[in-house]
Amino acid sequence: MTLTDLPVIPLVDLPGGHDVVVLCPTARLAAELRRAHGAAQARAGASAWHALLSATPAQWLDHLTSAALLRGEISPSALPGRFLTWSQERSVWEQAVAHDLSPSPGTGEVADLFDCDGMALAAAEAESVRQAWRITVPEALYTEEYRAFLRWRDQVAKTCEPGHWHTADAALIWRIACVEQGLTGLPAQVGVAGFTVPDPLHARLFAALVARGVALFQVDFSYAGETQIRAGECVDATAECHAAAYWAQEMLAQNKQARVRIAVADLPARRHLLARVLEEALHAESVDAAAVADERDYAFATGMPLAAESLVDVGLQLLQLAVHPQRMALAGAGALLCGPGWSADDTEADARAQVEVALRSLLPPEVSLERWQRALVRCLVRDSENNPAPLLVAHTTILLDASRDFALLRRQLPSAWGERFDAFLLALGWPGQRALWPAERAACEALREILAALAQLDAMLGTVTASEAWRQVQRQCRDVQFHAPRERPARVEVCTLADAVAGPVDGLWLMGMNEGVWPPAPYPNPLLPAELQRRAGVPAARADSLTLQAQTMQALWLKSAPVMVFSWAGREGEKQLQPSPLLAEVMRYRQDFQQNSAHALSPSPENTPMEQFEDARAPDVTADEPVRGGTALLQAQALCPAWGFYRFRLGAAALPTPTFGLDAKTRGALLHLALEHFWRGRSQVDLLQMSVPACEEFIQQAVNHALEKFQQRAIEPLPARLAQLEVARLQRVLARWLAIEAQRAPFRVLACETRHDLDIEGLSVHVVVDRIDELNDGRLVIIDYKSGRSVKADSWSQPRMAEPQLPIYAALAFPDRAVAAVVLARVVMDEAGFSGVAEEAGLLPGVFPLEAQRRRYAEEDFPDWPAVRERWAERLTELAREIRHGCAAVVFENENDLKYCEVKPLLRVAERQSQWESVSQHNMDQKNTGLAP
Hints:
By secondary structure, the chain is of the alpha/beta class. The chain has 30 helices and 26 strands.
């Protein structure tokens, strides 16, 4: 008997009630047929009717045997044992795989090299295929993979035997046997709908029903009218998604009651793009935060993993911190700190964001939970009366205490861990302060159900560590497909090709119908010999079976909706693609989609009012506006005015990047402190008169002083070993630098790290001069230390100076003092030295006088030394004037000048380049086609 030989009854003619049961391969199709049957009864004018009884074979048999147990027809003693849930069965297989990979305590690390979860899944599937298709493997065909599978299977049998545990397949076989042995309560008729894949167990069930006198029939749920078919090629997958979204928009606009379905061959890869374009097409007006919770007109039949839900992810991360406190990524902890879903995420949000920035500067990329929590508390609790985030401090303390408790408990039953995890999340204020949306509330309840369901693993796993319990929770959250609750069915449904046969709709678009994708390639189970799977007739292992299955499904599609669309992509990157050969019968309806259909969702410029404005000018600086930045503001303004505006007037900045050890900024600060301590009150004569041991002692004193001051300011002290390394480095750098200082003309240090408040064209600028030396003749040498990247004084002769610090000091900070030289001091181990400009030769090694640098300092602009300071003052004043008057254009001489720009993403340099290239390509295309003006 084949299903195609059965009589056919239309869905609308089925009476409903207990006398007729419709069996479907998926629960989704069963629900859709139940809905469609009820809608047909309502259209026929019925005011009341019996609902259609539709289910999968496993669901129906479970209900049938459970009813027989309740009425005493099946004795409890007749049950073969305990039927495992899927999570229980998977755990048993995982244990078997792990046991095989770590046969002795000394080799337990071997299991960490393998994907035990993936191998357990493959093994469970292999056993299901072997039993269903009765595959026997001769010893001559044994492979290493199959031998491993046999060991795992024997271990599973050994584990299940004492408790009489049975898998879901064994449960199905037993229930079918109950039907064969005379189980009562069978309906008079059983319909089958949507079965396209041969299955021996289903065939056995259908044969048993026929033998028991049950009448089998096929359910016809196809569309009875004429179908409008279209097939066409899109430029690529992106254009295909846009075209399908535009089609759905048009279908809903034409019929307010329409329901359409978009079936996608590679849905996981296109899901996010489809969600975005459907949002643009169907909910373009939903742009504010309040619209996030609104129910959408589209929905995906395949839910997202529960672990992908925001609040569930927060809960899993909190559990992970408590279970694995020794090593945590600072970036992940920072995202958790700034994100919602726990503690006082609303009332203390600002303080949490500020402390996250501080921790980035203080801690390395990986830290322990204890160190992170200690640094967090020290950042927040500067004194007992001022704590901007008391709940955060309390909750992180609870988090740290819980991690210690989990470690002390060692091993507990999964049920006990589930209770502790639930109480732990509650104690941390999860899932946050604000009222939850329905979808969020459902996701949180789903996580709580998984924690409670850990009790089902008590018998399988026994006592486990907190880490293993957390792994089970995390895995189940990844496996569970979460569907947000809806008040009404979605008008646009997105599904896989396998789910496209799911009841009647008004339109069906089948996407991604490319050669090599449809029909799908064979995918035999890797643990069983592929040839034996093909011989047994396993559909997934045979290309001909998959092709026949695809043809059967395609025939059902063509009768499922009044509007049918088949589409495929023309290319993927540079690769040309072809449509599936199975589309040959619909190619007479081919009508390719134009490239501009990918942009059909964009508003038309002709129909949309456009406002143009010049964004190169910001508001003027007002008298009460504090402008930060000092010399850095003038430097940014010189390189790119928009940089100065975004960074210093709007306060935009890149977050600090955590580093192992000391970052460059901290190393530079230590060097400045050491040099300041060494030179304060000293002259070059003092340096030259020092003996080598005395100089080394003074250097050591300066370095120790710098480290001591740093430790006093730091939230947490440097580790002893790191401090030793930094002391040794600083001593070498200072010794190298002082040897260069000894070669200079005689001087004495007049001031170190002095602060000056300047008024430049009404702009208040605060500057700090690293060092001011005085020569024997009273002239000044102004020095700025540089300990990092290579810095040059080349730009001092240009209208817009890239390094304006020293020109500011020379031209504006000391207008009444004679200045002999302005120099940058590169204090490093390699290529240390001075660079800059001097009034005369011989003052500093490597620094040339003005007259020797005429190629850079043109005589018409810089005729003599006093003119240098005058010209600098003019140009700096012009930069200050630009800032005051809001000059904020994105202009720069060279993109390399923006290498260290903290706000470069805001400048949209790449976007501007892309627009220029697009315009150029458009003009070229017009020229080539003769359309150029």
